[in-house]
């Protein structure tokens, strides 16, 4: 129990540090990051660590783009949802879990016949 509590506190500190980096981004980058972040959380499973890793990479990408003076849509493209979908493509998501559960339940049904 104590280990879980320590991990939760550590994760919260880590998340606050990550969001401080987001707050330091130019306004357009910050806006787009938060929109993508909200979108991504719709797909997160488990403790969400897959999504946090992706978000760290996105912050790195946005920080680099901002430092180069690029516009945020030069990085994401006009289809920001498509960009976000590509980011989460390799993460464990509820969609993947639902697909896996569906296939497994059907497989079990027909294995018994």
Tell me the layout of helices and strands.
Blueprint: H1 2-23, H2 27-41, H3 49-67, H4 72-76, H5 80-88, H6 94-111
Outline of the structure:
The chain is an all-alpha fold and 113 residues long.
Work out the helicity level: over 70%
Name the overall outline: elongated
Number of strands: 0
Average residue pLDDT: 82
Structural class: mainly alpha
Distance between the termini: 44 Å
Describe the main β-sheet briefly: none
Instruction: Determine Rg (CA atoms, Å).
Output: 18 Å
Q: How would you name the CATH homologous superfamily?
A: c-terminal domain of poly(a) binding protein
The assembly state of the depicted protein chains is single chain
Number of helices: 6
The fraction of residues in strands falls at under 5%
Q: Element order, helices and strands?
A: HHHHHH
Structure in words:
The protein has 113 residues and is mainly α. It has a single domain (1-112), classed as c-terminal domain of poly(a) binding protein, CATH 1.10.1900.10. The chain contains six helices and no strands. It has helices at 2-23, 27-41, 49-67, 72-76, 80-88, 94-111. Helix 2 (27-41) packs across helix 5 (80-88). The termini are far apart. The mean pLDDT is 82.
Provide the descriptors you would attach to this structure in a database record.
c-terminal domain of poly(a) binding protein; mainly alpha; 78% helix; 113 residues
């Amino acid at each position: 129990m104590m280990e879980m509590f320590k991990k939760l506190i550590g994760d919260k500190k880590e998340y606050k540090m990550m969001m401080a980096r987001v707050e330091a981004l130019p306004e357009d980058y910050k806006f787009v990051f938060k929109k993508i972040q909200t979108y991504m959380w719709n797909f997160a499973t488990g403790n969400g660590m897959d999504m946090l890793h992706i978000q760290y990479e996105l912050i790195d990408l946005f920080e680099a783009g901002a430092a180069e003076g690029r516009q945020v849509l030069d990085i994401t493209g006009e289809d920001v949802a498509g960009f976000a979908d590509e980011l989460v493509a390799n993460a464990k998501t509820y969609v993947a879990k639902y697909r896996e559960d569906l296939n497994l339940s059907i497989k079990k049904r027909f294995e018994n016949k």
